[in-house]
Design brief:
This is PadR family transcriptional regulator. By secondary structure, the chain is an alpha+beta fold. The chain has one domain: Winged helix-like DNA-binding domain superfamily/Winged helix DNA-binding domain (Arc Repressor Mutant, subunit A), CATH 1.10.10.10. Helix content is about 65%, strand content about 20%. The protein has a three-stranded antiparallel sheet. A hairpin with a 2-residue loop joins strand 2 and strand 3. Helix 1 packs across helix 4 and helix 2 packs across helix 3. It is elongated.
Length: about 110
C-alpha cells in the first residue's frame, strides 16, 4: 500500500480500534496490521502524540505474561476527533471515486 495513503488513514484506524475496546500497544499494532501494514515504530509515537493531544487516556493493567501493560482508552475528545476524521475520509473517498469514474467514462 502506498505509504502516503497509509499515513493519511492511520489515525482513523487507531481511533476506531480503541473505540471498540481498550487496547495495549502491541495488541493495537496487531489490530491495525489487519488493515494496513504497520510496525511498533509507527504506532507507539502516534499513540504518544494522540495521548498528549488528549484523544487517549492510559492506565496500567497487570499481565500474566510479564510487566503491567499500558492500555489506551479513547476520550470524549478522541471520539469527536474520530468522527471528524471519518466524515473527512468519506468525503475525500467519495470525491476521488467520483473523479476516477468520470475519467473512466471520458475514455470510453
Amino acid at each position: 500500500m502506498n505509504a502516503q495513503f497509509k499515513k493519511g488513514v492511520l489515525e482513523l484506524i487507531v481511533l476506531e480500534s480503541v473505540r471498540q475496546k481498550d487496547m495495549y500497544g502491541y495488541e493495537l499494532v496487531e489490530e491495525v496490521s489487519k488493515v494496513v501494514d504497520v510496525n511498533e515504530g509507527t504506532i507507539y509515537p502516534l499513540l504518544k502524540r494522540m495521548t498528549n493531544e488528549h484523544y487517549f487516556e492510559t492506565y496500567l493493567r497487570e499481565s500474566t505474561e510479564g510487566p503491567p501493560r499500558k492500555y489506551y482508552h479513547i476520550t470524549a475528545a478522541g471520539i469527536l476527533y474520530r468522527d471528524s476524521l471519518e466524515r473527512d475520509w468519506n468525503e475525500f473517498n467519495q470525491k476521488v471515486c467520483s473523479f476516477l469514474e468520470e475519467q473512466k467514462r471520458g475514455r470510453e
